């Protein structure tokens, strides 16, 4: 018997050849649990978005989700906050990790940590607005305060100022500077020395991957460029693809490539007759090429037309 769990982690090694080991709680037992397990409430769960290393510790942003009974089938959940997981002993076996969880945000309107970048004394947490179009704003936290961040979150407003008040229940989304519209709940922002620019990569429309660039992490950001269209939408019935993320550590010695992954899953329509829907679900469970990361490598020279 198999089960879907809310989070796993993979640890890769590249010497002498690439290898990946996966971990979750209560592995290979009848009752597996997500790796980031904060509660036994089955209607509340945590998904990792991005992370970083600092002073021998690893920090991972986790978005907190709860069931929304009024949401569309398959997407019937909403975000209620963000927690920062802090791994103390990263060199140990993951089963032995000591993880401290710190509340980062209770803001129901925007989720900091969609992707994270460090510039100088601050960590910049890109935040997706839950406004129906996934517009992107930006928050920041001083590196010196990252171990207990809740009271130190600032957001960039339309006047170009960094303001307190992001975690307030009456946070006014209209005051936030929108870095760009129609982003994604999952994305990456990484600095490319070859371009001397920051590159934002994300997927949207459940079928396409886009990039934007900026000289500064807070923008202004360029117009978006579509760089890849997922073929699964044309070849696998009832599929949808998402979670486009760059992995700059694999982009080569001179970072000449844009290496990213995405994942595809199934969304079987509720409108199908029950017998047909059950058959489609069973067929989807047998497809081992789905719901695993797909890796794509593109040349930066080709994307941005330079030599």
How would you describe what is shown here?
This protein is mainly beta and 307 residues long. The protein folds into two domains: 1-185, no CATH class; 204-307, no CATH class. Helices cover 7% and strands 42% of the residues. It is built from three helices and 18 strands. It has helices spanning 232-235, 274-285, 300-304; strands at residues 9-13, 19-23, 44-54, 57-67, 77-87, 99-105, 110-119, 122-129, 136-142, 154-156, 162-163, 187-192, 197-204, 208-214, 225-229, 239-246, 257-266, 294-299. The strands form five sheets. The chain has a five-stranded antiparallel beta sheet with strand order 7-8-9-10-11, with no helix packed on it. Strand 13 and strand 14 (208-214) form a beta hairpin. The radius of gyration is 20 Å and the shape is globular. The termini are far apart. The mean pLDDT is 89.
Number of strands: 18
Q: Which ranges are low-confidence, i.e. pLDDT below 50, for 5 or more consecutive residues? A: none
- Residue share in helix: under 10%
The overall pLDDT average reads 89
Major sheet: size, sense and barrel closure? 5 strands, antiparallel
Number of helices: 3
* Main structural class: mainly beta
Question: Kindly, what is the distance between the CA atoms of the first and last residues, rounded to a whole number of angstroms?
Answer: 53 Å
Series of secondary-structure elements, N-terminal to C-terminal? EEEEEEEEEEEEEEEHEEHEH
User: How large is the share of residues in beta strands?
Assistant: 35-45%
Shape: globular
Strand order of the largest sheet: 7-8-9-10-11
Estimated radius of gyration = 20 Å
Number of domains: 2
């Amino acid at each position: 018997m198999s089960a879907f769990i809310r989070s796993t982690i993979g640890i890769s090694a590249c010497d002498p050849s690439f290898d990946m080991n996966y971990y979750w709680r209560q592995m290979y037992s009848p009752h597996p649990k997500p790796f980031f397990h904060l509660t036994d409430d089955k209607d509340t769960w945590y998904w990792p978005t991005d992370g970083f290393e600092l002073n021998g510790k690893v920090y991972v942003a986790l978005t907190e989700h709860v069931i929304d009974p009024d949401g569309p089938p398959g997407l019937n959940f909403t975000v209620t906050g963000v927690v920062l997981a802090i791994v103390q002993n990263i060199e140990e076996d993951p089963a032995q990790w000591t993880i401290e969880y710190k509340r980062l945000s209770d803001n129901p309107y925007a989720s900091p940590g969609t992707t994270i970048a460090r510039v100088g004394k601050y960590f910049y947490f890109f935040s997706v607005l839950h406004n129906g179009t996934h517009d992107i704003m930006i928050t920041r936290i001083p590196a010196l305060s990252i171990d207990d961040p809740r009271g130190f979150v600032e957001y960039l407003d339309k006047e170009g100022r960094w303001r307190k008040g992001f975690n307030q229940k009456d946070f006014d989304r209209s005051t936030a500077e929108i870095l760009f519209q129609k982003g994604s709940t999952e994305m990456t922002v990484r600095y490319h020395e070859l371009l001397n620019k920051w590159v934002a990569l994300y997927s949207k429309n459940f079928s396409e991957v886009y990039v934007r660039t900026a000289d500064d992490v807070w923008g202004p950001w360029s117009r978006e460029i579509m760089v890849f269209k997922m073929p699964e939408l044309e070849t696998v019935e009832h599929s949808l693809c998402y979670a486009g993320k760059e992995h700059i550590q694999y982009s080569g010695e001179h970072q000449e490539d844009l290496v990213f992954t995405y994942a595809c899953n199934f969304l079987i329509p509720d409108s199908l007759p029950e017998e047909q829907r059950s058959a489609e679900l069973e067929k989807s469970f047998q497809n081992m090429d789905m719901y695993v990361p797909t890796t794509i490598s593109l040349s930066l020279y080709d994307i941005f037309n330079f030599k």
